[in-house]
Amino acid sequence: MSAIAFNNVSLACDAKKLTTGGDDPLLPKLIHAINHASEIEIAVSFVQCSGLNLLFEPLKDAILNGAILKLLTSDYLDITDPVALRELMPLLDRGADIRIYQSDNKQAFHMKSYIFVKTVAEKKEEELIDGCAFIGSNNISKSALTTGHEWCFRHDYLPPRTSREALEFNYIRSAFNEIFAHPLVHKLDHDWISAYLRRRKMMQFVSVDPGSPPEYIEPATPNHIQIEALTALVKSREIGFKRGLVVLATGMGKTWLAAFDVLQLKAKRILFVAHREEILLQAQRTFAQLMPEKSSGFYNAQNRQKGADVLFASVQTIGRENHLQQFSKDHFDYVVVDEFHHASAPVYSNLLAYFNPDFLLGLTATPERTDQSDILCLCDNNLVYERNLTQGIDDKILAPFKYYGIWDESVNYQAIPWRNGRFDPESIDNQFATQKRASHILKKWHQFKQQKTLAFCISVKHADYMAESFNNAGIKAVSVHSKSEIRRNEALTQLQNGTLEVMFSVDLFNEGTDLPALDTILMLRPSNSKILFLQQLGRGLRLHKNKTHLVVLDFIGNHHSFLNKPYALFGSSTIPVLIKKVKEDKLADGCFVNYDIEITQFWKQLAKQQRTTAIEDYQNLYEQLGHRPTASEFLNAYGDLNKVNKQHKSWMALVAAQQQEPEFSDLIENYGDFLLEAVQATAMAKSFKAILLEAFLRLDGFSNPPTLEKLAKDSKLVFDRYPLLKQSELSKNLQHCQSDSVQWLEYWKKNPIKFSCTVNNKTGKQWFKIKDNRLVVNLDVREQDKPALHDAVQELLTLRLLQYSQRPNKVSKAAVNQQENNSLIKREKAIQLAFYPNLKIACGHFKTGDDLEFEYKNAPVGFGHLQADKHFLAKASGNSMDGGKNPVRDGDTLLLEKITPTSAGSLQGLTVAIEKQDEAGDGQCLLRVVKKTADGRYKLVAKNPDYKTIYADEDMQTFARLKGVVR
């Protein structure tokens, strides 16, 4: 085991050896020792949720930082809470050794000991340099660790090894190891907990320990907002929806809502998906509290517990095709996708397209409808319930805030390079790490601050610099990030008890973290995302008994990108509307907003730069969203596409002109008329043509023209996903007829199929035809163009259904709210590209690696327009491709573009990354040139003649093509 940080910090934080409880609680001493120990050994007769809540975060952080945890508890007298045992399972999954002494109420078990050891690596062995053992009356419960009268004596290890204190400490450890290996001790697992639950319910509980009774925790119940949302979910399912999106501002209880809805639907198998482990851990604890009878497990890089009743899955793992196939499509009754604003990323799209649960719930705090247009479609256009930040404050669920927009006077942001929607990281780092800016921030902080401050910084360098500046000014501050020595839970504890005044953070507190005591937030970085801004604001909006309001100090500079923050706060998308709303100050009760006059003057300067062209509108929206706008997002932002059509003929032509990608430009040149006439401008008296095209795309119609029977059947299934639309456009008989019935087939053939194959009187073109009982597109589509054409048609279908829903007297107002968009377009974030350090693209033989860990790096220049959801970076490993005009050498950074089996097109002659699974189920990758043989087989050719050619087999899958080597 590697050495743990803080080797110069003693495990004992108090000179007194006896802890008596009350004014001298054991809890802070335990947390201090946990945060600085390399080995932790705990034995207690019982564990209660109230006590585990106090220790869970420090124990989790300790494990994640390499500490060894051994924990022993018991079922003696049935006092141990089974919910607490369920909540301990994530620690076990991450390496803890957790065991249970099964007394069956025959053998007393009254142990209460906490042992901590610090070691350092000494040659090939670990050397013990510090240790202490707390032994007394404290079990793991809130009262025992805080307010109760509990005596606990600390014995300290003192060198040398032969000292009396050292020998006694080693004896304590040997006694622990002896009971830890007792014949009545069992490994904790979900089966044991389930059996304990069953027999525990049958027994009458009697307490023989009045000083430490099991603590009653009032069962969780939904708040009034959650009750409204639960009712809306029931009504949505009664209508016929099988998916739905719920939008709740940060801090309003999205995870609890999901758990309550699982209960009311009585789902048996549940999948909860998120992109960060912190969110999954918190969700597991929430579900364990509400449904302790269900087993839970994790599906990520380390654990793949497929049999759990409630599975908490990392989308980076389960979203991959080989992992999805480990489950049947209907394996889960209920699927929850948290932070759904990420859902247009490919791994989410794969998952959403694969599973067919009784209900799928998308959860997000995305700020406004414009930002939802590309994700609502993934929930079948069913916006079930929405409550924003203002409503949360008015409903007393969130705290009010006083917001100060402060002019960032020392930084000229217009002089900092701006690329792909982001400031150059190195340049802005240098601008931020200056004494002049730090002094300005410190002055404003002194003017407005309250007691407990969290500051958001742009980088590790920035956070460290700010913490040093504040400490030099006599302010107790720390820098907290993935590389910092101080652990997050320790910093939070110190902030809570007043030891710290300010935490400077980098990305650790954006999502999934509750910080109720925070009363001041410093925003010291620009935000390229409305969602990120609101998430950071939300960190301080939790209610707390000692907090009347939140103070927000936001440093705003002279750059148009800073408009994202007030746009998110006031729900506006243009400067004139923003200025009007700021003057009206129509925020929640108790809230206050003030902007320095320099800021509003700068806004007015920007407003004078009137946009008169569709290109300027497009570029403005690009900056707001942080990715290339889709047609539906443009429509939501500006109301129509008239200017686009007048100035550029079609939406896709405008996109081609702005994106300047040769492949996309070729697509529009070859198929632009089809996209315009057959999709964007086709006549739609009803939604039938759009439904037909949606089914055509679902069946991969460009590559495999579907039979009319299959097309009609799938069209009906598409209609069934939109019950309100179906009710408004089909007769009752057709609504209820089977998708494979003759009645439906004949009706569908006479309506959209027939009309889609009709020659247009104006253009004389027929875009579809029936050939051999199949619907075929009536143009020559090159194989390599089919995936891009598929995506372009899908984007325009979203637009058409959105336009259709907005027509007066076509569908009910309720239907409009339910079906605004209808696309599976992947969001292009155009920020930085993911770099996967563990994904070894082998230039030799297949080599095991994974893409579960990643960081962001600046997109390389010289490769055209790169997209965050399509392109990524990884290292080459080996020399098999070191040859020819464009060699790939060991250690080169590779720029790759993701492809799927259905979107790959022709691979002939391309250099591609191929994946297969080894015997353990882990992924292995290889880089080769693909060539097709005369007998139809594919061979994988190395550029280095020293390496043999490999022939592809059915176990191999192409997942990316090489776009270039980044020198």
UniProtKB/TrEMBL annotation:
It comes from the Bacteria. This is Type III restriction enzyme, res subunit. GO terms for cellular component: cytosol. Residues 235-385 form the Helicase ATP-binding domain. Pfam families: Helicase_C, Peptidase_S24, PLDc_2, ResIII. Residues 441-583 form the Helicase C-terminal domain. CDD domains: DEXHc_RE_I_III_res, PLDc_N_DEXD_b3, SF2_C_EcoAI-like. Gene3D superfamilies: Endonuclease Chain A, P-loop containing nucleotide triphosphate hydrolases, Umud Fragment, subunit A. One of its GO terms (molecular function) is hydrolase activity. SMART domains: DEXDc (SM00487), HELICc (SM00490).
